[in-house]
Design goal:
The structure is a homodimer of 126-residue chains. Chain A has 2 helices and 6 strands; from the N terminus they run αββαββββ. The first copy, chain A, has 126 residues and is of the alpha+beta class. The mean pLDDT of chain A is 94. Chains A, B: Facilitates protein transport into the nucleus. Could be part of a multicomponent system of cytosolic factors that assemble at the pore complex during nuclear import.
Chain lengths: 126, 126
């Protein structure tokens, strides 16, 4: 059995490194059936998803991952990955908390693609 | 096609109402293959999951849901549900932020059970 926790950790490192360097390069991780819900806005398909990520109104972004949780999501190799962390945007030094949930499914090339992707900023409860 | 957003909303309302009233009554929502990762502690199966929830060290708890996101998680009726919100414990009036992700799968009785469940407190990033 694949080690879903190692795969989740590798995916998260790769995803945010790529996001923070050049969001266009995230395209190969998505497919036409992929879904992204970004702050309640639903998008489907690689083109729509990457367009949304690229057009986000900041040039510089840094994701700081605080927690990674993973579980098998089905009996055919799917993995659910839940990340919490902080975002630093542009020159702003006050981080914002976020949470992002992915479901990774095996592709036919020994790797994975993102089937589900849900992003939310988390505001302080107090 | 079932309306996954309505199902997610109904599930979340039922889940936290039941949690806040009597956590023992959550047992029918889980199965032996269900997984819960609670603040990084992994548990599997109805008995272990409900025991964990019941033994949490508080008597009074109130969940205040802020956001609910949902997407289909497979082609056979699964639904991924991501909740963010605030927790009020005992007489403490300062809420804590949390996020909880579920994958619901159809049972054979026209309803759903919880296959994946991941709970995390979210601490302020600043």
């Amino acid at each position: 059995m694949a080690d879903f926790e190692s795969i989740a950790k590798q995916f998260v490192e790769y995803y945010y490194k790529t996001f923070d360097e050049n969001r266009n390069n995230l395209a190969p991780l998505y497919r036409d059936e992929s879904m992204l819900t970004f702050e309640a806005t639903p998008l489907q398909g690689t083109a729509a998803i990457v367009a949304k990520l690229v057009e986000l109104p900041f040039q510089r972004i840094e994701h700081q991952v605080a927690t990674i949780d993973a579980q098998p999501s089905n009996t055919t190799g799917g993995i659910i990955v839940i990340v919490s962390g902080a975002l630093l945007v542009e020159e702003e030094r006050r981080p914002m908390s976020y949470t992002q949930t992915f479901q990774l499914l095996p592709n036919n090339e020994g790797s994975y693609f993102v089937f589900n992707d849900v992003f939310r900023l988390v505001y302080p409860a107090a």
